[in-house]
Amino acid sequence: HRVICNEGRIISTEAILHCQSDVELCRLQAFALHLVLYRRHGQKIEISILNPDTLAQTFISLPEQTYTVHYADNLEFDSSTLKFFYSSLVTPDTLFQADMNNLTLLVEDQLSVTGYNASDYHCEYIHAEAGDGVSIPISLVYKRDVRRPTGNPLLLYGYGAYGYSVPVDFTSLRLSLLDRGFIYAIAHVRGGGELGPDWHTQGKLLDKHRSFSDFICCADYLKDNHYTSTEQLAVMGESAGGLLVTAAVNQRPDLCAALIAINPFVDVFNTLSNPELPGTSEEWVEWGNPARQQERDAMLSYSPYDNIHHADYPDMLLICSLHDAQVPYWEACKYKRRLTERTTRDSNVLLKINTDHGHNGTRDRYHYIHDQAQQFAWLINTLTSDSGIY
User: What is the pLDDT of residues 40-76, one digit of tens each?
Assistant: First the structure.
């Protein structure tokens, strides 16, 4: 918890952060006359320039309300120029140069996307209020001219585990949805790291239920404020995010019209009860140990496979991978079998098993694009086939 500055002087991180408990120091880069601090404050990474003699801080003003910052190698110690990578839901990957003396920004390089005009798209950073009064952030993006009074098809993505912050960054693949009138949204629920370590702690172990209620409140907020409607809403999660969306739909089968779960962690209790599976004991830190009664009861209360009941479930696309060492493929298979036995409507539940993929999908660029195209095609067909929106 200390950093070493010029001439071997030691400055505490408490002094640097001015004792702000809601600010997390993520990274520090040292130059001859400046210290650069990457601080998580709220959902965003702030970049401040610190004078190591006076401890005075000045902040680099970034162009948007919600964004992602990635560190760049700054190998010249005597330089007064800082380089860093920047992206947002509408801004392609950009390499910025910042003058640390006058804080001016200059674009050194930016990913070129053929035919793309950032001004045609709009992103927002809004908040939904959870049942316990906590404000849950939502990042979203859509094409400016497609908002409809009755709402739009909307894909709501979530993760909410391990203290991981879902990047609010750009991908050209998403444009195929946005140009067809979709809104894309990210629910930054508790269990993730978007608002610091406490945000993670509030959504793990015995408090995991908060992740699901947060996600539900985000979905309801988007519907109540006419971004979408139940018939036009799809939810999506990968791995622990697959647990998030399927657990939320168990609690509220009427939450949405479609669900995509990729390598979903849906058989929580049985998987964590098997110490022979790779990494099981390490996962107990996040989810709990089934050998402890209180933690066992908590996970049984939300484990998606164990809580499927007779209800009108939405249409689903379940995707698993044969070579997944983190979430075994049979979890999605078991979940699909039990769901089709218990759903009380003619739900379209599809199961796709990727025979050559692992937990993180494929490293082949074109196979990855093909996988995304399949998911989007299913989504477009499920939500908009009768609306004429595309």
Answer: 887 788 999 988 888 888 999 998 888 999 999 999 9
| Helix residue ranges, H only, 138-292 | 175-178, 197-201, 209-224, 240-251, 268-272, 280-287
3-state secondary structure at position 254:
coil
Tokens representing 295 are 């933690």
- Catalytic residues, which ones? 239, 324, 359
Helix, coil or strand: residue 23: strand
Query: Could you give the CA distance from residue 54 to residue 9 in angstroms, rounded to a whole number?
Result: 13
- Amino acid symbol at 297: D
**β-strand partners of 236:** 157, 260
Token pair recorded at residue 14: 């408490």
- CA-based max dimension of the chain: 72
For residue 13, the one-letter residue type is T
Alpha carbon distance 261, 188 (integer Å): 17
Judged on CB neighbours under 10 Å (0-12, 13-18, 19+), 270 is middle
Phi then psi dihedrals of residue 95, to 5 deg: -100, 115
